[in-house]
Amino acid sequence: MGTLYLVRHGQASFGADDYDQLSPRGREQAVRLGEHWRAQGLAFDAVLTGTLRRHAQTLEGIAEGLQITPEPLQLPGLNEYDSLALIRAIHTQPLAKPDTPELYRAHFRLLCDALAQWMAGVISPQGMPSWDEFAGGVRAALDHVRHHHAGHNVLLVSSGGPISAAVGEVLGTAPEVTIALNMRIRNSAVTEFSISPKRLMLQTFNTLPHLNGREHADWVTHA
């Protein structure tokens, strides 16, 4: 039986004009994950990513640490939802830059509220698919892995939304649980599914084996 390793991208540029760019710390997280796996002797038979820049940059860092040259299958269905479009759908007034703890928490409270309404079909954020279409893209990626890579190790680099949707799909979680999982996934965290032709099974969720050492304690980030 193989294993699907789902990795959330490294720390991006939260609060900047362009979020879709790894920070220096995000790059370090990705390289460190690859180094950890190389020390474990782990190899991958296939690699899947979304098409966002932070996905590609995270894979580049992992590949550097692993000392490999991957040829990923890029799937738009593994791309993240548009959090700003979600928030605008329920809060039309401009928001202050979330540069204080209070504004940061307010930003994510609004996002969770918007996610719940989107998943329930109450809102249709501009430029975004429906929740069913979004979840369908994630489901298609999981089906591809199950049908083509059973018995192999597969690396999948994506974002918190698709990864939490994948866990929700495998476990059959309620929408509010899927949202709660989404909010807890850390940068460069690893979630593992066992792969068989008939189904995927959750093995681990949101782990950071590459950052367990004391010297990496301040490398743990969420945004």
Automatic annotation (TrEMBL):
Assigned GO CC terms: cytoplasm
SMART domains: PGAM
Any single Pfam family the record assigns to this protein: His_Phos_1
MF terms (GO), sorted A to Z: phosphatase activity
InterPro entries per the UniProt record, alphabetical: His_Pase_superF_clade-1, His_PPase_superfam, PGM_Phosphatase
Protein's recorded name: Phosphoglycerate mutase
